[in-house]
Amino acid sequence: MDKLIITAALTGNITLPTQTPYLPLTPQQIAEEAERCADAGAASVHVHGRDPGTGKPTTDPAVYREIATLIKARSNVIVCVTTGGTMEMTAAERIRVVPALKPELATFNMGSINFSIHPIAERYKDSDYKYPWEKDFAAGTINFIFRNTFGDIEHFCKTMIENNTRPEHEAYDVGHLYNIQYCIRRKLVQFPIWVQFVTGILGAIGADLENIMFMKQTADRLFGPENYKWSVIGAGYPAEFNLATLSIMMGGHVRVGFEDNIFVRKGVLAKSNAELVEKVVRIARELDREIATPDEARQILGLKGKDKVNY
Asked: Phi and psi for 247 in degrees, rounded to 5?
C-alpha cells in the first residue's frame, strides 16, 4: 500500500460558527490550524475562505491568497483550495481562485446534487446564533441545488489544465464516477486521477461501509485500479472515523476536519482539527499503515510542487 495521505478540511463552507467555538475563521486562524494539522501528520490541508469579519464563506481570491501565503510560510503542507460553494456563489466565482493562485491541488465537484444542512437550523434558537447570517444560510439550503453541470465541469477541467493544478475529484454519488469517465473520454482528465468518495451529505450517498466498497468497485471497473488514487470522507460522527478505518484497511486515503465533523469522541468537541488528524494517525499506526509526509504525498499524487504556485 501507499503511505497514508491524510487531508485536514479546516473550516469548510457548511459548518456554522455557532456549532463550535473552535472553528477557524480568519486567515491567521486558518493558517495556524494548518500548521497544527501538518505537525500532527496531515500531508494536505483543504482550504475554504471565510470573511474575517463575519465568518461567512467567501470566494474572494484575496482572502485565499492571504491564507495560502501564510500557510506556505509556516509549513511544507500541500494546500488544496476549494472550488465548491454555497447557494450564493456562481460557478464562475468558485473557479476564479485557480487562475489567481495556480495551486498544486484544487477540489473539483463532479456533479449536481441536492445539498442541504437545513436540519441544523432546527437545533438552535434565534438567540443562540453567533452571527446574524447563520440561521437563514442553514435554513435556506432546503432549496439548494449544488450546481455542477457538464458545462461547468468542462470549464473547470480546462481551467485546471491551463494552470497545471491537479484536480481532486469529489464524487458524492456513484453517478459522479461516470462523469469522471466522461471527462476521461473527452480527454479533459488524464490518468492517474485523484478521487474522493464523499459520503454522508444530505442529498448524496450515505456514509455506509457498503457504499464505500461499492464506490471502490465501480471506480476499479471504470478506471482500472492502477489508474487512480482514492480518499474517503464520512460526514459526521462517528462516520468520519469508521470510514477512515475502512479506507486505511483497503489501501485508500483519508480526509478529516471541521468541514466534515466537529467531534473527536461522542459528544466531545475537538478543540482543533489537529485532534482529528491525531486520532486517524493513531488508528493507522494500530493497523501498521505508514503516514505520508507532504513531499511523499506530492510524489504519490504527481503534484507540481509548492515552488510553482502563484502565492
From this structure: -65, -40
Beta bridge partners of 175: none
Classify residue 282: in a domain, yes or no. Answer: yes
Domain CATH number, residue 48: 3.20.20.70
pLDDT of residue 254: 98
Check whether the bond before 225 is cis (ω within 30° of 0).
Answer: no
Neighbours of 96 (CB within 10 A): 17
- State how many domains the chain has: 1
**What's the domain range around 172?**
6-308
DSSP 86: -
The torsion of the CA quartet 211, 213, 218, 220, rounded to 10 degrees, works out to: 160
Report the C-alpha gap between 11 and 33 in whole angstroms: 9
Please tell me the predicted confidence (pLDDT) of residue 178: 98
pLDDT for the residue 67: 98
Three cell numbers, residue 182:
466522461
Q: Is residue 39 in a domain?
A: yes
**pTM here?**
0.97
Which residues lie closer than 8 Å to 135 by C-beta, 6 or more apart? 121, 124, 126, 129
Q: Which residues of the chain have pLDDT under 50?
A: none
Residue 74 lies inside a defined structural domain of this protein: yes
CA 270 to chain centre: 18
- Among 171, 169, 175, 146, smallest CA distance to 156 is for 169
Assigned domain for 1 exists: no
Cα–Cα distance measured from residue 113 to residue 171, given in angstroms and rounded to the nearest whole number:
11
The predicted-structure confidence for 8-49, as pLDDT tens digits, reads as follows 999 999 999 999 999 999 999 999 999 999 999 999 999 999
